[in-house]
Amino acid sequence: MKKVFVFLSSAAVLAASLAGCTSIGSVVKNVSGKNSSVNVLTGLPGSNGEVLAVKIDDTPPAHPQIGLEKADVVYIEQVEGGLTRLATIFSNPESLPELIGPVRSARISDIEILAQYGRVGFAFSGAQTKLFPVINSANLENLGAEREPPSIYSRDLTRIAPTNMILHPAQLLEKAKSEGKSIDVAKSVGWKIGDKPKGGKAVDAVSFKWPASRYSATWSTAEKRWLLSYLGAPDMSASGIQLGSPTLIIQMVSITPSEYHDKVGGVTPFSNTVGSGKAYLLRDGEVSTIYWNRQTAESATSWTLKDGSSANFAQGQIWIALTDNEPVFTYPVSNSTAPSASPSQGSPKKSGKN
């Protein structure tokens, strides 16, 4: 098979080399002269389609989850009881899975997380009564299950409710389009794809947790991505693929009680993603301490090193864990004989709204 190479103009190549990052979302040409685009969120070949956000259950009965290996971005956020739930982003029509799930209900943190993506289509399976007015007034299209037929939100009878609602995303987006609903296409939300930062520290694994949920990730040299484990076991998708990504971000945020409660009285926590703070960038088998900054809910999140230069992400899927617990890193024996709470690069910055 002949290899196909992509050529950029000399000006584009020079700009990319100076910036140390790829201009994602631009259209380039291959040797055949045809236009070839890349997805703005992942840097992978594909197009920038409508942004679909899907809320996914993350309790043990929900595993193995469906379609997550095809997501562009996955956020892990804390919910009631110290458990976690996922907010997943899909924007590349070429990689949209046939099914996604199990779908669960929305939370207040989702509104702020999603605002930076523009007007997204939001797929979820309900919400607290008090939260619905907030969802309906937000800059998003409510594509929740209560408004859609069972042909779009079906039940997997091999699973137990409430962790058995499965979304048919292509049908959902097609119906939304036929109804004239407005959903923005993917755009940059702040990170840049490019060369790894200098000064990163080699690391074999990392563990990070919430009061009643925990994850770990181990670097795979063969697959060039972090392989995830959930509650001590490999985090497998329903397709049999172990979940994981080339870029793993552990974003330190403030998590505080909100005014919302679940049906049994549990207080809904709010993960604050507006403001500034510290994060850990894991890519290429290394960890770097970086800093995030987001001025408003509608603005993009910048990710920088201590000197203010870009903390580039790797090409491919991105997982972002929102937590207020410091992660624990396991370093190669040559560097360290015991796990460490941080790579000790730079001083921490306080998170919270400005």
List the helices and strands and how they pair.
Blueprint (H helix, E strand, L loop, with lengths): L5 E2 L2 H10 L1 E2 L4 E4 L4 E3 L14 E6 L15 E6 L5 E7 L17 H8 L4 E4 L8 H6 L2 E3 L10 E3 L9 E3 L1 H10 L14 E2 L6 E2 L2 E6 L2 E8 L4 E6 L2 E2 L9 E2 L1 E6 L1 E8 L5 E6 L2 E9 L2 E9 L7 E3 L13 E6 L4 E3 L24
Parallel strand pairs: 5-8, 6-25, 8-9, 19-25
Antiparallel strand pairs: 1-3, 2-12, 3-4, 5-7, 6-7, 10-11, 13-23, 14-15, 14-26, 15-16, 16-17, 16-18, 19-22, 20-21, 22-23, 23-24
Can you give a write-up of this model?
It contains four helices and 26 strands. It has helices at residues 10-19, 108-115, 132-137, 169-178, and strands at residues 6-7, 21-22, 27-30, 35-37, 52-57, 73-78, 84-90, 120-123, 140-142, 153-155, 165-167, 193-194, 201-202, 205-210, 213-220, 225-230, 233-234, 244-245, 247-252, 254-261, 267-272, 275-283, 286-294, 302-304, 318-323, 328-330. The strands form six sheets. Strands 5, 6, 7, 8, 9, 13, 19, 22, 23, 24 and 25 form an eleven-stranded mixed β-sheet that branches. Strands 14, 15, 16, 17, 18 and 26 form a six-stranded antiparallel β-sheet that branches. It has a three-stranded antiparallel β-sheet with strand order 1-3-4, with no helix packed on it. With 354 residues, the chain is mainly beta. It has a domain at 6-37. β6 and β7 form a beta hairpin.
